[in-house]
Design goal:
The chain is an alpha+beta fold and 324 residues long. Helices cover 18% and strands 14% of the residues.
Length: 324
């Protein structure tokens, strides 16, 4: 099998997905500029932010040979595609394939790096799907690894479709059928628990209160973190604008010397992805999710924003992506 990007032979199974670089909940535009971090200082990082880390586990993890909850087997490590010969005993996954905690961790990291939001066995001829709980247990994930895995799964699921999130009960991706109702049914948890299991699309906790609701559930603190980010992010200034002679602003300070003020975080007007600008480049930006070019200041599509650019107010809702 060959790497689809480099053409170099790869020991890993080909899943037919090109790799990509994971990014946090708020997509940071032009993070390579040194002055970038200063724009984030006045307000805390979003709840869904995550530090990407796709490097394989550096230190091998080993199972406790006396753990009665594990089924140990003799033989090959079915996920040791690089023949690293991990010293830990082999244990059976629910699908029957044998793994070590390090080989399983490395394989699952690879799936996340390829944009997957589900963990599928890489064993020969097997396409079984593991729950997040099983991966956490069998890979002996550290708290840091568990957080990274979960946040990356969420982002990958959102990247694939805006109508998919991970169930807080089982970790499986669930599709939201009604965009105006925060109450979502998980069929997997309902079958496993033997009772109706519903969760809140917004706070990702088991549902409380009346239904349907489009603003919040009955859980305390239920709110939309994306809206909070749009509300609390600091302002930024773009310099060097040229304006139409007929344009007059009520706020003279805002436009002195070609300076235009707008929020540092915007929701893409087409798909709703949160984008943060560093002001170190052109206000015209390309959304990495929907590939639509728009002006970060006035939120108009490319071509509509000409010499007279008026800053759009802070957004109070997240645009819904209506795919054609």
């Amino acid at each position: 099998m060959f790497n689809r990007t480099t053409g170099v032979p790869s020991p890993y199974p080909d899943l037919g997905v090109a790799p990509f670089i994971s990014v946090p909940h708020v997509y940071r535009l032009y993070p390579e500029f040194p002055a970038y971090r200063a724009t984030m200082a006045p307000y805390p990082a979003p709840q869904h932010s995550v530090t990407p880390s796709s490097a394989p586990a550096k230190q091998e993890k080993c199972y406790n040979p006396h753990d009665p909850t594990l089924t140990f087997v003799d033989g090959e490590d079915d996920l040791d595609f690089l023949y690293e010969g991990f010293i830990s005993r082999r244990a059976k996954m629910s699908c029957g394939h044998a793994v070590t905690p390090t080989s399983l961790t490395n394989w699952c990291r690879r799936l996340l790096d390829q944009g997957r939001s589900r963990f599928v066995c890489g064993g020969s001829g097997c396409s079984a799907e593991w729950t997040f709980a099983e991966v956490c247990k069998m890979a002996l994930l550290t708290p840091e690894e568990r957080e990274y895995f979960q946040k990356t799964m969420e982002f990958n699921a959102a990247r694939q479709t805006l109508t998919t999130k991970l169930c807080p009960g089982c970790g499986f991706a669930v599709t939201r059928e009604n965009g105006s109702d925060l109450n979502v049914l998980c069929k997997v948890c309902t079958a496993v628990k033997g009772r109706l299991f519903e969760f809140c699309w917004q706070c990702l906790r088991e549902w409380k209160g009346a239904r349907p609701r489009k603003d919040r559930c009955g859980n305390r603190g239920c709110c939309n973190p994306s809206l909070e980010t749009l509300k609390k992010c600091p302002d930024i200034k773009f310099h060097g604008y040229v304006y139409d002679d007929e344009f007059e602003s009520e706020d003279e300070d805002e436009f002195d010397s070609g300076v235009l003020v707008c929020p540092s975080v915007r929701a893409c007007p087409t798909c709703g992805l949160l984008l943060e600008h560093s002001t170190m480049a052109c206000p015209s930006v390309d959304c990495p999710r929907c590939n639509v070019t728009f002006c970060f200041v006035c939120l108009k599509n490319s071509g509509e924003c000409l010499t007279s650019c008026i800053a759009a107010p802070r957004q109070t809702s997240i645009p819904v992506w209506k795919k054609k």
